[in-house]
Specification:
Layout (H helix, E strand, L loop, with lengths): L1 H10 L6 H4 L5 H23 L17 H10 L13 H16 L1
Length: 106
């Protein structure tokens, strides 16, 4: 149920509602959100990044440090992931956004 609520919050602009800003995310929820985001990065990004020279392969340990670059490439520039067959689903986009938002709250 908590994950459904978090997915709903990703659809709503969290910054626009002061009540939503006060919701706290527990460590366990944050870990689950990060694991979901890692699955997206691993399945949609790492297979290509691992074969390209000088590309970062994302891991649970290093992904937080790349969150701003990921947000920029995926959501602002819309350059990643490359390829028509490799597009992110709405759910995958929400999972990445949820993870990035948990980092913004810390």
């Amino acid at each position: 149920m908590k994950l459904i609520i978090l997915h709903f919050l990703a659809i709503v602009n969290i910054n626009s509602d002061p009540f939503i800003k006060t919701l706290a995310i527990t460590d366990n929820q944050s870990k689950t959100i990060k694991q979901e985001a890692y699955l997206v990065l691993n399945t949609k990004c790492n297979f290509c990044h691992s074969v390209k020279k000088n590309r970062t392969v994302f891991s649970l340990e290093n992904m937080d440090g790349f969150s701003k670059a990921i947000a920029n490439q995926v959501f602002i520039k819309k350059k990643m992931p490359k390829g028509r067959k490799n597009k992110l689903s709405t759910l995958e986009e929400e999972q990445l956004l949820n993870w990035i938002k948990t980092l913004d709250q810390s």
